[in-house]
Amino acid sequence: MWSTTPLFPEAASTIAPRVDALYLSLVGLAAFFSILIAGLIIFFAIKYRRRSPREIGRNIHESNMLEITWTVIPLMITMVIFVWGAKIFFAMSTPPAETLNIYVVGKQWMWKFQHLDGQREINELHVPAGRDVKLIATSEDVIHDFFVPDFRVKADVIPGRYVTIWFHATKPGRYRLFCAEYCGTKHSGMTGEVIVMDAPQYQAWLSGGASQQTLTEEGQQLFSDLACITCHRSDLQGRGPVLEGVFGTAVTLMNGQKVMADEAYVRESILNPAAKIVAGYQPIMPTFQGQVSEEQLLALVEYVKSLPRPAPRPGS
Ligand code: CUA
Questions:
Q1: Is residue 313 scored above 50 in pLDDT?
Q2: 265 near 276, Cβ under 8 Å?
Q3: Is 107 close to ligand 1, i.e. is its CB under 6 Å away?
Q4: Dist CA 170 CA 289 (whole Å)
Q5: 250-252 and 192-197: which strand pairing?
Q6: How far is Cα 214 from Cα 218, in angstroms, rounded to an integer?
Q7: What is the dihedral of CA 231, 233, 238, 244, to 10 degrees?
Q8: Which atom of ligand 1 is nearest to the CA of 182?
Q9: Does residue 144 line the site of ligand 1, with CB under 6 A?
Q10: How many CA atoms lie within 13 A of 311 on its CB side?
Q11: Left, alpha or beta for 209 (phi > 0: left; psi -120 to 50: alpha)?
Q12: How far apart are CA 1 and CA 14, in angstroms?
């Protein structure tokens, strides 16, 4: 319906019709009251106009009933809008449990995408239709903003943090991607396309191209290249904590505090190892700030995520 209206982007995700319904209701509500109020002003101005120069208006006293009515009705309307909006907001900000994960790095002035199978893309993102897709996004310089109008998806992408964005594309097609945060001279050129394919097409796309390392394999390679492996060993000889099975669990720190070992925790522990020292270990790990790129950090995060609890690392 809206694809024929140049004012409105296509609705190509599951959240889009919900956002549109709220938005159009707000427009309708605003139009209804604007017309009602403007109409009454004109009507009363004519009906109660001054008919002779000596006419004096009648004294009118307050009416509690009237005042309560015009307070309670707008309160109820605004509460409905609030609850409705909050429900959509929570749906947008809570990714489902089972998702296809893709990493995103924004930089001046491009979008870089990293698939778990190893594919990398710039300013183009291939995703399957009919699946929940979760983007874990960060920036390597300034604040950018990931905006796909056809999906009603928009989120700031912030340096030093992992921001989670999710969507469920409903129909195959090509959808414009924008940066919606002014980020320097070529901000307006920081655009791209999200290419939604049906499942078999997407599988074909994934398996196409040169065979490459998966993100986990790349992380494993880095883990030994950067000599992380000499301290983080699973055989209890290590000077650093064992990383097997750590991801997604609560870690007890030196000061007794417990933190969740998530993407942000792993990233911080690589760049600023002294920030959160695990109980029973010394703060001896050097920082890797400046030695690993955001993409390499993602590979390391994915490697740590992949380590199963009891199994020893292959080759150790
Ligand atoms: Cu990136 Cu604007």
A1: no
A2: yes
A3: no
A4: 40
A5: unpaired
A6: 6
A7: 110
A8: 2
A9: yes
A10: 6
A11: left
A12: 16
Residue positions counted in the chain: 316
Atom of ligand 1 nearest to the CA of 188: 2
* Ligand 1 center to 188 CA (angstroms): 7
Average pLDDT estimate for 277-293: 82
Q: Which atom of ligand 1 is nearest to the CA of 181?
A: 2
Q: How far is the centre of ligand 1, averaged over its atoms, from the C-alpha of 142 (Å)?
A: 8
| Per-residue pLDDT tens digits for 138-185 | 999 999 999 999 999 999 999 989 999 999 999 999 999 999 999 999
Cα–Cα nearest to 180, from 212, 152, 161, 222: 152
Q: What pLDDT band is residue 237 in, cutting at 50, 70 and 90?
A: low
Q: What are the tokens at 274? A: 């002294």
As a whole number of angstroms, the distance between CA 143 and CA 106 comes to 8
DSSP label at 277? P
Q: Residue 154: count other Cβ atoms within 10 Å of its Cβ.
A: 15
As a whole number of angstroms, the distance between CA 16 and CA 213 comes to 35
Tokens of residue 144, six digits: 């950018």
Measure 128 CA to ligand 1 centroid, in angstroms.
25
DSSP string, 10-60: ---BSSHHHHHHHHHHHHHHHHHHHHHHHHHHHHHHHHT---STT--PPP-
Q: Where are the alpha helices (DSSP H) in the chain?
A: 16-47, 64-93, 199-207, 215-225, 263-271, 294-306
Three-point CA angle 252, 256, 257, nearest 5°:
70
Residue nearest to atom 1 of ligand 1 (CA): 144
Kindly tell me if the per-residue pLDDT of 258 is higher than 50: yes
CB 293 within 8 A of CB 219: no
Percent of the chain with pLDDT over 90: 50
